Amino acid sequence: MNPFDLSAKLSLFLSLTIVAAAQTYLYHICPNTTTFPINSTYQNNIDSVLTSLSTNTYLQDGFSRDSTGNPPDEVYGLSLCTAGLSSDICNTCVSKATTDTVQRCPVEKTAIVWYDECLLQYSSQNIFSTMMDSPTVYLVNTQNITDQERFNELLAKTMNETITEASTNQKGAQKFAVKEVNFTAFETIFTFSQCTPDLSAVDCNRCLQTAISQLPMCCAGLQGGRILMPSCSVRYEIYPFYNVTGYQREVYPYYNTTVIGEFPTSAPPPPPSATPPPLSTTIPEEGKGNKTTRVKVIASVSASIIGVLLVTFTIYTLWKRKFGSNGTEQILHTSQEVRLLNLRRQLGDNHSGQDIHNEMALNSKDCPAFSFVTIYEATKHFSYDSKLGKGGFGSVYKGTLPDGKEIAVKRLSRTSGQGLQEFMTEVTLIARLQHRNLVRLLGCCLEKTEKLLIYEYMPNKSLDVFLFDSNMGILLDWKKRFNIINGVARGLLYLHEDSRLRVIHRDLKASNVLLDYEMNPKISDFGMARIFGGNDINNTNRVVGTYGYMSPEYAMEGLFSVKSDVFSFGVLVLEIISGKRNNRFYVSKEGESLLTFAWKLWSEGQGLELVDTSLVQSSVAAEVLKCIHIGLLCVQDDPIERPTMSSVVVMLGSDISLPVPKHCAFSVGQFVAKSATSVVVKDCSVNEVSLSNVSPR
Fold it and tell me: Are 165 and 176 in contact (CB under 8 A)?
């Protein structure tokens, strides 16, 4: 590298770093919906108000406001310094803000800018003594708390005490309060709240209550968070970000910023530089101390700054070499990968074997990380109109990315008991599987308290929507149903034999088969899936799945293998042909299930009577009978007598002779029979469908 180039880059980097270090800028908002002409009366009035604010800041303990002009060119402005600052620091911040705001919002009539030390805002509307809680800016410390339940209880109690004191504070013109409470022997929760002093006690309390009500949305389970609003702000940390005795602020870095509110930003600013908090250095006042002492302090501080900058530059150079131009995306994914690893440690790795663990290592190509803001906007703020449905995992929303691509977003419910494990399984499993008959996972999001899975959007929803509705069922003629049977079979074959991770799905059912624009099937919902090796038979004490689709050895003994999926496939085939649910099949007082009823008709040579009435015109008798035959082979009680999925695919695509199925004695579902013997399944977790009886017959 040319020494001159290196010197120039070092110079530029040092100058930028010095500027960044000198600033404690947090965020700004200036909507471009209302603008003013350059050199207009309104601009002159803004300049006048800003000049007044920068010279009169400390007249009322850090608060100043002024207005000038006549409608429609009247301008209202105010500034507020963070409580506890010296007059010099306060005045410097407001002075910087008045200059910065003009540069960031050159022609906007309304603007607000937040610094760690102050805020400044102006508007063409009267903002004095008016409680404004929008727009809202969230800033969070991304480190997690271990004992979240106790932490949240202490935080809520302490924060409520803080805002009560702040809203009734009579210390001059300021409305603020700080409190602390011991969390552990080594950790303390520090809280802070402040309002603009022109608010009434009622409005101040209302603003602060609104602010802390949003802490669970942005910061639940995290070590620190801050809510910034035009009229008030709250903050908590597990370190003293203020001097407890004198309220002298110390600046600490934040890593994530989210804006929620009715005003868009002209350009989202970058997050503050994650540099260590500066050391407090006391410099003698003018006329005190001696010149030599001042020189030593200045030289010492300068040497420290240069040392820090050189180290920072070295780190920056190494970072650029490693990440290149995609550094931001890499950092975003890395932070989310760390959270995934933490989740895995919390839940335990259910995928046995070091080779499997290594095979499931996540990287950005397998599961890209989406930002929460992108998904939040894509789903129209997770609006009711965007909601596609809800399951045990949580709600599913339709979204549209900025490039126009449609997506489906699974949002983990905070009350979901099984969602965390399902989330981890899907992220580390389905991201590695690619097949035309498997739904595609586009990425995930692990920001704040959100856990999101982003899939390709399936416009025709799931198979059960059509199959078990007499009106929708007519849209599925035999050609489409036969294509769905073939597609699901090929998808299962890929999972069992052809993928690099051999997978047992464990919850194949009609609602987990999604349909694309051309009604092609795609198997979804891998939250209960497990990796296996060879012809392994696995055992579990926790039976999960859906009754009616479970194989007898799994429902009764907790044993599962690829033949468990084959059984579920057989049930699905018979449902596709009949248009009836196995676990809700009522045909006689004897309590026959769909499986036993199908075998009875087939053995008597009346198999076509099983066919859905809407298929009479479009069905091909030979294909229908072959599918019934294959379905009955798949639901044999003995897993050894069931075919593999490779055999099933061959059977579906050829006219080879098929073995004769035996009578299906086992059925799981909801039956009419009153004399059925009930059997208890140990530690059972049922997905969506309830159980009436488990009956071996």
Answer: no
Q: Pairing state of beta strands 685-686 and 544-545?
A: parallel
Q: How far is it, in rounded angstroms, from Cα 377 to Cα 581? A: 38
Cis, bond preceding 72 (omega within 30 deg of 0):
yes
Q: How many helical (H) and strand (E) elements, i.e. helices and strands, does the chain have?
A: 19, 26
Q: In three state form, how does the secondary structure of 477-537 look?
A: CHHHHHHHHHHHHHHHHHHHHHCCCCEECCCCCHHHEEECCCCCEEECCCCCCEECCCCCC
Selected catalytic residue, list 133, 198, 507, 565: 507
Q: Is 104 helix (H, G, I), strand (E, B) or coil?
A: helix
Reported as a single tens digit per residue, the pLDDT across 478-536 is: 999 999 999 999 999 999 998 877 889 888 999 999 999 899 999 998 878 888 765 56
pLDDT tens per residue across span 373-411: 899 999 999 888 899 887 667 789 999 999 999 999 988
Please give the structure tokens belonging to residue 95.
Answer: 């002075």
Amino acid symbol at 125 = Q
**Is position 507 annotated as part of the catalytic site?**
yes
192's tokens: 């802070």
Tokens of 119: 């805020």
Continuous segment of H or E residues that includes residue 43:
helix 41-55
Tokens in use for 127?
A: 């903002």
CA distances from 141 to 318, 474, 489 (A): 25, 54, 47
- DSSP-assigned beta bridge partners for residue 504: 530
Question: Which pLDDT score, from 0 to 100, does residue 232 have?
Answer: 95
Task: Tell me the two tokens of residue 517.
Answer: 């624009």
Q: Hunting for tokens 């003018």 — which residue is that?
A: 286
